[in-house]
Amino acid sequence: MKNIINWSIITILALAVAGTFYAEKSARFKAPDSDTPTSTGSGLEPKNGTLDILLDDLAYCESTGRDNFRIVDSNGWYSYSTYQFQMPTWKAYAAEVFLEADDADLENLIWGGEDQRKVAKYMLESNPENWRHWRTCGKLVGLNTWANEQNI
């Protein structure tokens, strides 16, 4: 019973964070008028922005941009740092980015937000469908739309 309550609390908190993020995104990303340039003027782009901008938004959605922390995900695995990588996914892709790193180095690198950004960018550039590793936040920030545009 205690586990059910804990998972319920985690689910409620995750939905609250996602809802807050979605509300902020809705306010920041209005659909432009036909005469309006695509830039909002604040340095933010509409949902179909560049990959770097989408990665900024993804980091905010996943962790409010924080690094050096971990949470237990809904599947029972720990998710780490800025982009909330789980260790098996991290090791698989980070080994392709940090070629000289051994297993212990990869486990230490997971804590770095900039290192995670490099791996996330590599994942998405090598296969746009990898946005699915961030199903909820990926949709909220528009990575699914970006991926569809890459496959045209």
Structure description:
The protein has helices spanning 2-28, 51-63, 87-97, 103-109, 113-126, 135-141, 143-150; strands spanning 70-72, 78-80, 85-86. It contains 7 helices and 3 strands; from the N terminus they run H-H-E-E-E-H-H-H-H-H. The chain has a single domain (2-31, 45-150), classed as Lysozyme, CATH 1.10.530. It has 152 residues and is mainly alpha-helical. The chain has a 3-stranded antiparallel beta sheet. The chain is 57% helix and 5% strand. Mean pLDDT is 79; it is low at 25-48.
Write a compact overview of the structure shown.
With 152 residues, this protein is mainly alpha-helical. The protein is built from seven helices and three strands; from the N terminus they run H-H-E-E-E-H-H-H-H-H. The termini are far apart.
Count the DSSP helices.
7
Q: How does CATH name the architecture?
A: Orthogonal Bundle
Give the C-alpha Rg.
17 Å
Order of strands, main sheet, comes to 1-2-3
Bin the helical content.
55-70%
Shape: globular
**What's the average pLDDT?**
79
SS elements, strand count: 3
CATH class wording = Mainly Alpha
Structural class, by secondary structure, is: mainly alpha
The residue ranges in which pLDDT falls below 50 over 5 or more consecutive positions are 25-48
* Major pleated sheet: 3 strands, antiparallel
